[in-house]
Specification:
nine-stranded mixed beta sheet, 19 strands, 24% strand, alpha/beta, four-stranded mixed beta sheet
Length: 376
Amino acid sequence: MKKVLTIGGATQDIYLHYHGADYFSITKKDYTKNYMIFESGEKIEVEKILYFTGGGSTNSAVSFKRMGFETNCFCQIGDDDAGKLILKDLKKENVDTSNIVTTKEHSSGTSFIIHSLKKERTIFAYRGANGFLKSKDIPYDKIKESDQIYITSLSHGSADFLPQISEFAHKNNVPIAINPGISQLAKGQSQLKNSLKFIDILIMNNSEAQTFMVTLIESEPRFKKVLESSQKTINIKNDNAEKPYLLQTPFLYENIYFSIRKFFREVLKMGPKIVVITNGANGVYVGTKDEIMFQPSIKTEIEDTLGAGDSFGSCFVASLMHNYSISESLINGIINSSSVIGKMGAKPGLLTHKQLKEKINKIKANKIQKFEPSKC
């Protein structure tokens, strides 16, 4: 059985469950943003509190395990009730927890989740122990014996270890996939950029890709020229969810428009063989040196979007490990993600390999669209 090591964060996810927060929208020239609102001094009656475990490392570990791989999880938790709950959940899934570090210096990471009336969510995230991994705790022996490394968000000081983990895995011929978080991209782009030459698969959502693009531009002015789009207008409306919206809509930064297609091209030059950008309800984009693929999302009754990225990315990589094609792996990841957002919590909806194959036969996914990089 192939072995997978997941690296990243672990949290206790606490849902404050009630009828939903009010919200309002601000529409500017090029975009619309929604904001939750709470009346100052208001006491909000919470209907119930729901407790789950989350964090990229634990979510992806459970996903890989359900997909049929021997899975080990490396992260750091506090010596507290939240940490014990995280361990209990992983052991219940038969995930190897022997490399999880418990510290008395910091509390376990905790997220507080509130939903709006339209089930959009806002998260108050306390990183806690996640941000304080130590070099001595990195499980180099476990990395060497793994068939796949899957790295999720490394927060605060923990992000500094990405280059050395990636280089060590690469030297030992262990493939690496990474799904970095937005805080890591905003504050530690140099670590990611310096690690890309060792990474095989890079997975981001649209917001993370834009953040990484901005940090590249700010760190090296040459990126402003190579990423600039020839298209100077933005198509705000996206009435047809089956259209490759990101390929048609340039990204605006400081009055300059930038191309996602060119972003694919430049990042692929840095080392990865596959670059993935997820875009929520619109679908998922995959870039390789030969083509760009777009797979529309599957219509799903949304209960909770937390964990959607982890479920897609881990299933996409797990499918490649099962020798599915990139196109098939893309569809598998979307099916797994749609299952997760149909339930509360990041783990309950994760599919086993058997369940995934059963759903593939039942779900009629929209046909994948393919584009030549120079023509899209």
